């Protein structure tokens, strides 16, 4: 049977109550999608509310608007996937081998406390599936607890968009929390690259995380390696 991957994307279109637009960081989806497609995996997309997914305008400009993102933007079939995403209640975790949380600052608002996403993640983890995230996507793992009540990330190595990168991106004063600090507060062993905005992937058993948008392909390739046993 083909492997099946569940991508998680945001429904949040702006920073808090401001006019600062955000949404899915498109290349974090497309880069991973390309890697999984090359391995013949089946792929689905879910969001906290289902339905339409906004795109972060910053991710649609050079250099983030690369060939992978451009190809998605001009493909009506692919774009339709972002107009009608599934809801967590539509998902049977037993149908999937891995979950992949994408980023974009919007996820900081709608990923952490979504019980449906937590239920899916917990079920996948406890059946031995791969849990993965890139950039801000790791916010989706902040509050996920296992059956024993412990945080999934406690005592595990993890990476994601760093506080240094938030400051360099000029948005540190607009975001609702410091994700790096929150991960550490939950007992996660946070790691990052020596230099900001460099590709960096951390693997701890069945948990795979990438630090920033430039880590999406490498994150997906590691997921493939784990699933295929290579």
UniProtKB/TrEMBL annotation:
Coiled-coil ranges per UniProt: none
Q: Which Pfam families match?
A: DJ-1_PfpI
For this UniProt record, the keywords arranged alphabetically read as follows: Glutamine amidotransferase, Lyase, Stress response
Can the keyword ATP-binding be found in this entry's annotation? no
**UniProt KW Lyase keyword:** yes
Residue ranges constituting the DJ-1/PfpI domain according to the UniProt record:
27-225
Which SUPFAM superfamilies would you find in this protein's record? Class I glutamine amidotransferase-like (SSF52317)
Which protein family is it in? Belongs to the peptidase C56 family. HSP31-like subfamily.
Recorded protein name is Type 1 glutamine amidotransferase domain-containing protein
Species annotation: Acetobacter fallax
């Amino acid at each position: 049977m083909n492997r099946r991957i569940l991508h998680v994307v945001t429904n949040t279109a702006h920073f808090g109550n401001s006019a600062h637009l955000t949404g899915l960081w498109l290349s974090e989806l497309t880069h991973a999608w390309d890697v999984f497609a090359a391995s013949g995996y089946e792929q689905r997309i879910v969001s906290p509310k289902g339905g339409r997914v906004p795109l972060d305008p910053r991710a649609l400009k050079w250099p983030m608007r690369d060939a992978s993102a451009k190809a998605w933007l001009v493909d009506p079939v692919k774009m339709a996937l972002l107009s009608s995403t599934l809801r967590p209640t539509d998902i049977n975790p037993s149908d999937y081998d891995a979950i992949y949380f994408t980023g974009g600052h919007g996820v900081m608002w709608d990923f952490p406390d979504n019980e449906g996403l937590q239920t899916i993640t917990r079920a996948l983890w406890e059946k031995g599936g791969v849990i993965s995230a890139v950039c801000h996507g790791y916010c989706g793992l902040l509050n996920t607890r296992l059956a024993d009540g412990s945080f999934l990330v406690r005592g595990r190595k993890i990476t994601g968009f760093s506080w240094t990168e938030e400051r360099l991106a000029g948005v540190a004063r607009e975001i609702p929390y410091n994700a790096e600090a929150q991960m550490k507060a939950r007992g996660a062993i946070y790691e990052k690259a020596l230099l900001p905005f460099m590709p960096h992937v951390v693997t701890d058993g069945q948990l795979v995380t990438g630090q920033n948008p430039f880590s999406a392909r490498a994150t997906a390739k590691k997921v493939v390696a784990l699933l295929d046993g290579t």
